[in-house]
């Protein structure tokens, strides 16, 4: 399909339930960022983004009306005067290379593109499952195609994975929940019989038999991105998609023994799909859970079957945002409070509700915490706070508005203040800091792939660039994204689009990193396209839900 669909339709889609909930693009672009309690100097660059956006939108629209656009040829040139003139009118040479590499990774089923393989790395001896279409890996590819006005592949992917959800899923003799979405799938071509067959992995083949808890959430988030970008409500409204959503929701909204509204998970349940001490209530899953609930809320029909889910979602969102904003949030003040906490408090008057022993606070966090800034910590459960910084969870918290505007600003402040630790020479650390020595032995089970500052254990993943960029645009701080993108541009193509980098500064190509890793390629493209046209943000961002505000106010006065 020709033309900048994303640009023109983003603002036009309004579903049954999204009034007031969704990002009002015109407001984002035309209003200066909200005034926040945290004092911050707005640079010329930041101001110019929101101001220039209006004229760029007008220009884009005019160009579209005059038939000047074709796929892959979006207005490449939106940048501030401070940046080079080249950036203003010509795409970076890496962009064309990236598109070519992304198209090479396409996977076809009976002639139709249905996804992109994880890595197109012929030099690698071990293919493992990198020749599969991973649900989480496809997200940046999908966004790139949507932003480029090519929604068909995304639709095909959503329908194929929905079809896979309907399969009976078993690990040995154990039947998995009906709503489980696959971690990945593959198309087997039989050249003799001329047939294509799908195979899928729901965890039964995955190393460690890990459960892909994030897949279902990404699926819902992607369905909304597709709907928002194309303005095509008909897909989300089909009985099949409505049922698919309900099945995913049934898995995570079921009643049980829980005392918290967060979602209890086993280790390796998300992007970090190996044992890394993220079992319990990992921030990545909680943020994706929150975002998926909000996306589902905007797409679910209020019919006989949908209504009950809508009610359950609303209740859960209130409890979840309260819990996360109160107990996962850490800034200088909170850290100081925890440091002085008493333990062994009984009854509802307890301040230290989870009985965290202050001695368990790791030394590094006292140095890491800037005076201004904060973040959602990795995990909270009885007597346990995992203070590690996780990039994906914090970015998704900003995009979903799980973070209040003040918290979102504070996360960006922290990224700026701890640039060397979080970005270093290659964006972006998946987690900080690395686990070493005895702790590494205990926590990872002596995992040789996750040695300190490598892979999931403090490695740097270029794919995270798109999430950082989206968070930067949402918080009105695009200059941070520009800095990160420039770093990536100095190496990514030359290094062959590695999956991850190693080292404290992310200076070395990862020990076992695949080359031509598709989400490294797509992540770069999405970051570039969003910076050029910030209106794309709408497909992957949700504005703050005003209904949750009073609750938070109460919580703040109560906890302080
Ligand atoms: C690795 C990553 C996982 C990714 C997969 C395919 O297993 O840990 O997050 O989805 O590779 O790229």
TrEMBL record:
Classification via Pfam families: Glyco_hydro_100
Listed EC numbers: 3.2.1.26
Entry-linked SUPFAM superfamilies: Six-hairpin glycosidases
Entry keyword set: Carbohydrate metabolism, Glycosidase, Hydrolase
Domain of life: Eukaryota
InterPro entries: 6-hairpin_glycosidase_sf (IPR008928), 6hp_glycosidase-like_sf (IPR012341), Glyco_hydro_100 (IPR024746)
Function recorded in the entry: Invertase that cleaves sucrose into glucose and fructose.
Record-stated family: Belongs to the glycosyl hydrolase 100 family.
Protein name: Alkaline/neutral invertase
Species in which this protein is naturally found: Ananas comosus
Gene that encodes the chain: LOC109718325
